[in-house]
Amino acid sequence: MGLAAAGVASIGLLFPAVALAEDGAPASSADSTASSGDTADPREERRESRKERMEERQGELAASLAEELGVSEDKVKAALEKIRGEKQEERKAEREERLSERLEKAVSEGKLTQEQADAVLEAAKEGVLPGGRGGGPGRAHG
Questions:
Q1: Where are stretches of biased composition, namely Low complexity (predicted)?
Q2: Number of domains making up the chain
Q3: Burial class (CB in 10 A: 0-12, 13-18, 19+), 27
Q4: For site-directed labelling of 95, which of 25, 80, 85, 126 has its Cα 20 to 30 A away?
Q5: What is the sign of the dihedral through the CA atoms of 104, 109, 113 and 116?
């Protein structure tokens, strides 16, 4: 059973299915239906389509794992959600740490005051800043 649990854990890490709202919290189904009906943005439509396919694969995976492991599908889904949530929190903490380091550097170089840096960090923690995912070299950082 130890190997089975490790398998479930590793699969949960490889196939994350929880959608995130802008604030980093899991999005509800009401959020996704509201957003898909309010926009004609092709990027948003593709994002929604990918999300739906990923959720479908996750359901199939959970059903297969449950059958293979001889446990209920609900138990598998709960384990995957728990692991996914823990990983999301870790990634959020890592992003905040990287931002904090960049802000400290900007303060030490005189590009920002400490008060400005504190305000940016607080805004990031509150989910106010855009571009929470996908920013990087050559990409807009909001």
A1: 23-39
A2: 1
A3: middle
A4: 80
A5: negative
